[in-house]
Amino acid sequence: MNKALELRYMAECVWDTLAYLYDRLSLRKHLKFRVVNKDLVFEPETADLLRIPIFLNDLLDVMKNVFRRLQFTVLEQEEVVSYVIRGKVDVKRSAKYFPQALSVRRQLITIETPANLLLAATAIEVYEKLLNVYNRLVSSPVSSAMQPLRDLAVRRISDALTFAWVIMQDPVVRQLLRSAKELVLRPEKLDRLEREVWNEARLRPREFGAYVELLKLRERLRKPLAATTLEGVKEALAIDLTSGKLYELYCFTKLLYILVEQLEVKDAKLNQDDRVLKIDARYGDKNVQLTISYNVIPKSVKSRVQEAEAKGLLGDGVSPSVLKGLPDTIIKVESDSKNVVIIVDYKYSRATNYLTEARFKALAYLYEFNANGVVIMSPSPTGKDKEVEDEEVEDQSKFYTSIKGYGGAKLFINKNREGKFLIFAYINPEKEKEDRNAEIMRKIMEIMLQQIK
User: What is the pTM of this model?
Assistant: First the structure.
């Protein structure tokens, strides 16, 4: 897979995985990702927006059920006719027109009932709001690295527009479009109609059974349709995100997904200005609390360098506070019996010289934060950068390429396999490698969680 396809795939995965995590963890706030001196925020409303195509599938199912028990109304219409008589002659009123014409009453069957109009109005409402989103989204400024993210939104909304258009072209729905359009243009009238249908459904549940599903679907659609203001997603698209940062977010969200999958989550909330995620959960027979961060140090994790005593060589007044390291991810697991700190660093490079540098950094983190283990995630290496001439890189490259078949490796710093460890994990951002990526991450989580047993 070339780099452009990798970027697109990572962007899609990041957005989809975060949408799932917002639901799974019931987060009421927005998780902030620090990108140098800016914050990248994937609003929950953006996730709602991308779920609209799912609701359209549900709308189609509702329509099928409605059509099986379609409501109709019988109207009595009076006409004055001269030649062809269709209906019952009203003798009394005909005296006024006789002999030139007769007054005729006849019955007409119409499907223009409040419930059916609500069905057609729902289809129109979704289509018009999606069209507004599409037009605004394609005209929004977007950074080159965030282009895949915008393309994902545009593609999904375009598919949803096509689907909504097909729904409106149904022969039954088309008969209702003119009247339904007037309702959509007057929201207060549409709200009254919806309340009227709800009241009728409560009084006649058997007759309105299929329409109750439509009413429930409209309730579910309120939040996604409100997301069509797009302010949050427009801000996110304007941030200039490098490919390396996108890989970090890809690995972080996948790792968080796997971690949540392994636990029985009780509660989740955001701390430290919405930059640190805290999860109360159960793992096996233990209650555990997890603190997870991205590009920020949780308050409960201390840096030895930051707290070091410092003095100038020729005097005082020196502070080492800014010298603290900043790992990409810190995961702290606390239980009644033990606390564990795991550090994860991400490297979007296939050159072994970067892995060599990452190893030095990882071992430094291991000491500075008194961590139990460090994980280095990167795509599978292909060899060293040809422009790099370094004896250490030359000697170590063979090791990094030799462990590709194993998905990486775990190094026990202590020979008795207890205590601190260093893990190299090869996570390739390709759809074909997703199962293997998940298997590798589950193994890492298993190693991490075993530390508290």
Answer: 0.69
